[in-house]
Design a protein that fits this description.
Chain lengths: ~350, ~400
């Protein structure tokens, strides 16, 4: 078979012990699958969505209620995006807890981390595109965090929002970022990430002489496993999308004057931990510095913390990476606890 | 592995079938594009069983959303209803301007009497200013009976020269006020157009315009009524009026225990005196639009706006009742008769008009100089004579009803 571009991204063989589901969790592959699902459904949504303050709400309602299977497409887009955050986070945890981030994969780890941040930004911009009463407070509160940055804040805010307060320009900008800016960067970095996996020697394994099992599976076996994962993921996504609709509220009439409807003032679930942090203090410290600190901590993992030795690679919880594992798990538990706390407390 | 893929595929096929089945069960949307808005709405998908609200508001013209608000495209009940105005009652005074207002609807030109909303908002039934002024005066909070406060702050249209007071502040008694005023505020503010009624079918009414115009009297409050009418029976007025007595010492409403069924024997309380027309006609047969809905001025009490008397229809010994012959096909009397066609009123007919010139469009002069009257709620026809030329012993300056009751009272 003559190699195609696909062969640059997809390995010809991989070591059998590291190809097992209990090692990879299938998270990286699922992320690719979910991104593809999001891209396809997203393109379909663009045929109906109208990115203006007056048009956004009604166009989503037309799509949801009147276009045949429009609700399914929208809900698939929504659910794939929510699952993506989870799957990407899981993938990152797997990489950290197996020590796979160690040199020479440090840079690819950073690419992966940027993909998580891009997914979060895409999720947030997509959430705002609803432009309904449900996103009002998250939009106002979330973007005000930018304003809280000393000195730079107001200028950044104006660049981000297209004015001194949220308005039509904000929606246009968020739409452009969502469908073009962020998506393009995500695709480029995503492909780069896949390419770097192979460039860095494929999945992390011990050196050949330190392997207990040197069996490998073929590209065809790998595709079969990927196909199985895709089928199962579809079987989960479809009922989710059909039976649990993506949130939708009455269109926002005006950003400055709430129309008195009772709405949820909760942040989207992946930012609940930030919302909870904001209750403890200053917006800049809690809403900007602390989340930034989490990112810096994650960046620091491969560079500053001791890494697993090469012979320890390819399995869970290598002794050499203990500190990184403890720090990451602590941070993850903390974030999860804050999110649950926020979800359970009334606002 | 191949077997696993086969099993997974079968599982996926099952979910696909399940999802397809789920979507096949979705209701077929029923679209309506009202001619007035030109915007499609899907409310009828669920609400096709609702009766037409009134002949003047056909659904094909108005649709639902122009009055009720809500999400016209949504087929999810929670979302569709989330932005409705005033819940099930868009005529509640808090939202009435958005629901019923608009220059071509009910906040139009006052010269044409199309300013219903502004009039109602300043009316004594909505502001409750009379009762509030009276109580505040009685307990020393103000030096006279002039109204200064109402249920909500309101002012007369700047263009209208004030006849009564020019504005009302919100009645919100503070701890400094005397206890009876506080008790009044707590116990007695449920008989105005913004108040939720007391519990019980006898009190069952909506708020806002629908308090009078939606016939709910005696019906189960849990069953909404989708109807607007100008044919308002006395029973609807009775959801507020004639329901009991007030004890001013402890500021309690003492509800009457009986539920009046037989109008002659049960309706009026024992000491009440009334004439035949006061129990055979309905309230709206005599009391006019301005009396009930206000005239745009803010009055201090009911007496200042209630002006129709026996003589309005019957005249006095020296004067015939005021009449007007309809010459214009756009006459307001014809419009009112069109809304409630109990009478075949036409150009050339002579009707009674009040001192303020309001037409009693349901009272027409006959060729012999006597009059016929049609009950607005019953359609019943009555005839009557003017006082002039009869043996009536009335004195010219004694025209209030109690003087007429002296001779014409109905004995029970």
């Amino acid at each position: 078979m003559r190699p195609s571009f696909f062969h640059h991204l997809h390995p010809p063989t991989i070591p059998a012990p590291q190809a097992r589901l209990r090692y990879t969790l299938g998270a990286g592959g699922l992320a690719v699958y979910l991104v593809l699902a999001i891209l396809i459904t997203g393109v379909l949504l663009m045929f109906y969505y109208v990115p203006t303050p007056e048009g956004a709400g009604p166009s989503i309602q037309v799509l949801t209620f009147l276009v045949p299977y429009g609700a399914l497409v929208r809900n698939l887009h929504y659910w794939a995006a929510q699952l993506l955050i989870g799957v990407v986070t899981l993938h990152m945890l797997r990489v950290i807890l197996t020590g796979a981030y160690a040199k020479p994969r440090r840079f690819n780890y950073l690419l992966g981390l940027s993909l998580l941040l891009l997914s979060l930004m895409l999720d947030f911009t997509g959430y705002v595109l609803r432009w309904d009463e449900g996103v009002r407070w998250a939009l106002v509160a979330g973007t005000n965090l930018v304003k809280s940055i000393p000195a730079l804040g107001p200028a950044l805010y104006t660049i981000l929002m297209g004015g001194s307060q949220p308005g039509a320009a904000t929606l246009t900008r968020f739409y452009a970022w969502h469908i073009f800016g962020l998506t393009l960067v995500l695709i480029i970095i995503g492909v780069w990430h896949l390419f770097r996996v192979r460039r860095d020697g494929g999945i992390a394994v011990p050196p050949p002489d330190k392997r207990s099992n040197s069996a490998r599976i073929s590209r065809f076996e790998l595709v079969r496993r990927e196909g199985l994962a895709a089928i199962l993921a579809t079987a989960v996504l479809l009922p989710l999308a059909a039976f649990i609709p993506a949130p939708l509220a009455a269109p926002m009439q005006s950003l400055t004057t709430p129309n008195g409807l009772v709405v949820d003032s909760r942040a989207p679930w992946f930012f609940l931990w930030v919302q909870q942090l904001l209750k403890f203090g200053n917006a800049f410290v809690m809403g900007v510095l602390v989340p930034l600190g989490v990112v810096v901590l994650l960046i620091a993992v491969p560079y500053l913390l001791p890494a697993a030795r090469p012979e320890e690679l390819g399995r869970w919880l290598p002794r050499g990476g203990r500190l990184a594992q403890v720090v990451t798990v602590l941070a993850a538990v903390l974030l999860l606890a804050l999110s649950i706390w926020s979800a359970l407390s009334s606002i | 592995m191949k077997r696993l893929i086969l099993v997974a595929s079968a599982f996926l096929l099952m979910t696909v079938l399940l999802v397809t089945w789920h979507f096949s069960r979705q209701p077929t949307p029923i679209v309506l594009t009202p001619t007035l808005t030109g915007q499609p709405e899907y409310c009828l998908t669920c609400h096709s069983d609702l009766p037409e609200i009134s002949a003047s508001h056909p659904v094909a013209t108005f649709g639902c959303v122009i009055c009720h608000g809500g999400e016209r495209l949504a087929l999810d009940a929670d979302l569709a209803h989330s932005s409705m105005r005033g819940g099930a009652n868009p005529s509640d005074l808090s939202v009435v301007q958005d629901s019923c207002g608009g220059s071509i609807c009910h906040s139009g030109d006052s010269a044409d009497q199309r300013d219903h909303i502004q009039r109602v908002l300043t009316s004594i039934q909505a502001t409750y200013a009379g009762a509030i002024a009276s109580i505040r005066y009685t307990y020393g909070a103000q030096p006279n009976l002039v109204a200064h406060q109402g249920i909500y702050p309101v002012e007369v249209d700047p263009g209208v020269p004030p006849l009564g007071v020019s504005s009302l502040a919100r009645f919100s008694p503070s701890a400094d006020d005397s206890p009876p005023i506080l008790t009044f505020a707590q116990n007695c503010l449920y008989c105005h157009l913004s108040a939720e009624p007391l519990e019980g079918t006898q009190y069952n009414r909506q708020t806002g315009c629908a308090a009078c115009h939606t016939p709910t009297a005696g019906k189960n409050p849990a069953a909404p009524v989708h109807q607007l009418s100008t044919s308002i029976p006395y029973t609807q007025c009775n959801t507020c009026h004639n329901r009991g007595n007030y004890d001013l010492r402890d500021m309690q409403f003492i509800a009457r225990q009986d539920h009046p069924n037989d109008r002659l024997n049960d309706y009026y309380q024992p000491i009440a005196q009334f004439t035949r027309c006061e129990w055979t006609l309905d309230c709206v047969d005599c009391h006019t639009r301005q009396e009930a809905m206000g005239d745009g001025h803010i009055y201090s009490n009911q007496k200042e706006i209630q002006y129709v008397q026996c003589r309005t229809c019957h005249g006095t010994l020296t004067e015939l009742p005021k009449t007007r012959t309809i010459t214009d096909s756009n006459d307001i009397a014809l419009k009112l008769a069109f809304l409630n066609p109990v009478i075949d009123l036409k150009v050339g007919d002579t009707i009674i008009v009040t001192d303020r010139g309001e037409p009693l469009w349901n009272v027409r002069q006959l060729a012999d100089g006597t009059f016929e009257e049609f009950g607005k709620a019953t359609g019943q026809r009555f005839t009557f004579n003017p006082v002039m030329g009869t043996a009536c012993e009335q004195k010219p300056d004694e025209q209030a009803s109690q003087y007429c009751h002296e001779c014409h009272v109905v004995e029970r």
